[in-house]
Amino acid sequence: MSLPPGFLDELRNRLSLAQVVGRKVTWDPRKSNQGKGDWWAPCPFHQEKSASFHVDDRKGYYYCFGCQAKGDAVSFVMNSENVAFMEAVEILAREAGVQMPARDPRAAQVADKRGKLTEVMEAAVQHYRMMLRGSQGQQARDYLARRRLTEQAQDRWQIGWAPNIRNGLTQALIAKGFTPEQVVEAGLAIKPDDGGAPYDRFRGRVIFPIRDARGRAISLGGRALDPNAQAKYLNGPETALFDKGRSLFNHGPAREAAGKGQPLVVAEGYMDVIALSEAGFQATVAPLGTAVTADQLALLWRISDEPVIALDGDAAGTRAALRVIDLALPLLVAGKGLRFAVLPEGLDPDDLIKSEGPQAFQRVLDKAQPMVRLIWTRETEGKVIDSPERRAALDKSLRTLLAKITDPSIRTHYGLELKRLREELFGTGVAAPRGFLPPKHLRPRSGPGGRGTAPQAIAPSPGARNSLLASEGTAVEERLREAVILALLAHFPALVAEFETSLSMMDCLDPVCQSLRQTLFRALLTGQPEEMIRSQGAGDLETLMAMRHVSIVPALRNPSDISAARMCLAEEFAKLEARRAARREIAEAMDEVEALADEGLTWRLGQAAEAVNRAGRVSNEDSSDLGEDRSALSGYLQSLIDSQVWVKKRS
Question: One MF term in GO for this entry (predicted)?
């Protein structure tokens, strides 16, 4: 359906964005200025305590400085209610008292049909609720009592009972004015192939209503009490209302609880969700009879940046986790991940809570592991990796998994973490085991006496040679830049907060630099940087300043020029990160080479070299206001590196 020109503008003009958003947030009165239409609140789209979500009521736009969510009233309703565009417009139109424009006849017919089916579903929920309370529901009430589900909890979840009668529900709904065709289309009855009268789909089962994010009944789930039943759990079929791959049990209440700060938990079934919610974990959902789908993952990430998958402590739970991992890897983006909480063996959440209480499940949540740890466990647990061939097989499987991650940044960080875990498993810098012979091309060259003195070097490709990344001075260069950066920040503590992000990402190679880096972070937290640097960082700073290439840096020789120090820091951070990023790219490329180097490797080395060159160039536009000072500062350290000042000159 298309909207006439100007309809959305009229809708936005009639509604205050602050009013629309105000239903979902609690405004911060200290930061908000109602008179200017300036509103602040904790963001409803991610968990936080500070008020980083800003609404400009005059312009009609919102923006979160934490998660970067932004938009207008329509997009806010779409994201907060998890509805499509037209549905969001209809919600706002009702709130504003605006008549929706005439719809396409076919679309109107589909919408009317869905509305009628929703009425059928709600009538079925009420019928089964009545059956549970009646004389025919004693067996179901006994079962629910054994599951320790109180009457109040049964009312909250609107649990019902479907007696083992062929067409009890169908006849009851027909008596209420619904047609047999509507009962079948809602998935509540089955029409025989021979054309006979429809019969009830759910018989002899405890009934759990399945609702969409807005609380509308869209299907039913049934739990059989007969141990000989063909299926223990049965969900309604795909209908115009229900798509089980795009629905979650307890979606709406869980989304609301997660918005208030509770962790989003993904359990296996209805009773797990109910048991956890009743125990205080209201932000709990479950897939509906299938493994988690890509659409369900998208729904989960709309609710929470890092849902926790609660796994039963058995083989089936492990298999389910591995399926989720394989599904999630290509979909990962920055800020969206999964954690996995493994329950004690043989227990599901309901069992654990009954035996040990809610605090036991909280301990399980507290120990939830990131997805990369489960990947590592899957690839290594129960395997003996004691030979080069087996290590190579592990490396190959890890590279295959990493290749599934489409986001370059996520792939890089996963690779670094897997590399760290691999080093923990195998150790680094250890001697080769007894009897181990290196490859032929790395063995010492045999001389006249039959014994070699030096390994034969492999000639680098032209791309690798030109990149300068294989030079012996690379690590020294990085230490040089680290020392200058830390010395500048110690002399200009006011710049620590400005460069906090870059400093946090800088892994120092030099112990003195690492020590001073930690001191700077502590000083930033205390709010007294100068005093702490004098008291705790004086020794480290003195060590750095004793290095000639540090002490004569122009920005350090002029302690009153903070702008020069700022510019120097920005450039050195950029060059250091470019150098290390290029080195990581080289290492990753080399790891992927299983035989001889090819054109792909040469291209990657050349690309890495070009990245370093780009970082080293001085932009004419950026330096227009600084003139020769910028060129001097930029070229100073490079001249030291080019002349290899760390190499002792022969007299």
Answer: zinc ion binding
